[in-house]
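Hey,

The postdoc asked me to send both predictions to you directly instead of through the lab channel. I've kept everything plain text so nothing gets mangled by the mail client. Protein one:
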Amino acid sequence: MITYESFDAWWWPYLFILIAGWIATDIWRWLGVLIGNRLKQESAALVWVRAVATALVAAVIAKLILYPTGELKNVSVALRLFAVAIGFSAFLIGGKRIWIGIVVAVGVLIGGQLLSG
């Protein structure tokens, strides 16, 4: 099984974030489309599911930013917050495509790390 501590390479935490970011969102979205296509968009059940899913993703992102583990501990809080802001902006500008936001944010993190040191 591959874990966060599986590899001792500088690039591994960034790849791990990309993979985890994709798995945590896209797989569940596709399953939701397949299973929930019979529900009305504004049904109480679907509104609740969306709220819980959004809260969980937001909590994971906040934990990674404010209380990082592993290699992310070596990245300044300012750089982590800047990467999130730029990634979110890219997500909005890119037509609300999650992968665009994730790739841009990870790119900012890597670029910031390379520039700082």
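Protein two:
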Amino acid sequence: MAEGWWTYVVIIVAGFLATDIWRWLGVLIGHRLNEDSEALYWVRAVATSLVMAVTAKLIVFPTGTLANSPLWLRLAAAGIGFAVFLGTGKRVAVGVLVPIAILIAGLLFLQP
């Protein structure tokens, strides 16, 4: 049993070193950055493009339960969710919950 503990300690330490140190460095250095700088515009653009790439991958090449839904349902959920997101003043929670509700309703309705 004692041997199993060391595995978890190594995982926790390695996880901390790989992620949390960079977060702390970001906090320490970030307060000196100008929010309107070209560098931060670039960082926001890259972050947004990465999120959109993952979203597109989930829509076009789904895995798990999402793979059981037809493409038209996934596209409709994304489109309607985006429209509702914009229509409600860009509320992220609404933009996430509406497509999930559409997917759930569609999967329940399409079940044989």
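Summary for protein two, as requested: The chain has a mean pLDDT of 89.

Thanks,
C.
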